[in-house]
Specification:
This protein is an alpha+beta fold. It has one domain. It contains two helices and four strands. The chain has a two-stranded antiparallel sheet. Strands 3-4 form a two-stranded antiparallel ribbon. Helix 1 packs antiparallel against helix 2. The model has no long low-confidence stretch (mean pLDDT 87).
């Protein structure tokens, strides 16, 4: 296993966390929207990660694992029903169907994703520093 594989692993994690942050941003932006672009209430989305094992040049696994987003799924939790009889989208009983976005959970998810991203940046910087120091040993 090459020392340079750390950049592949950290890079794949940074890409996955970036997509996770984009999904969280979309959820937060639509938390109070009564309707999405298709006219239906917005459904919160969640990112699903999966482990990867890239193959080397010879088609044999080199043992390096990374992470990638295998999909973005809709949250199946029930939608919020808010009593607002004067709202134009209210049903006959006066309830408006609102998104199933939990703002507190989304904020926690955002903090977790941004910290994971920053940890991978730090790991790449540390590896770069170690490699540069290794190059100076022979001088």
């Amino acid at each position: 296993m090459s020392l340079f594989n750390i950049f592949t692993v950290a890079g794949s994690a940074m890409t996955a966390q970036n997509q996770r942050l984009n999904v969280v941003a979309s959820n937060l932006a639509n938390a109070d929207s009564a309707a999405s672009s298709n006219g239906q209430p917005y459904k919160a989305k969640q990112v699903v990660f999966m482990s990867t094992s890239p193959l080397g040049d010879n088609g044999i696994s080199n043992g390096t694992h990374g992470v990638r987003v295998s999909g973005v799924i809709e949250d199946q939790s029930p939608m919020k029903m808010v009593y607002e009889p004067s709202h134009p989208m209210a049903n006959p009983e006066g309830f408006v169907t609102m998104p199933n976005v939990n703002v507190v959970e989304e904020m926690v998810d955002m903090i977790s994703a941004s910290r994971s991203y920053q940890n991978n940046v730090d790991m790449m910087n540390t590896a770069k520093t170690l490699l540069l120091k290794t190059l100076t040993i022979g001088q």
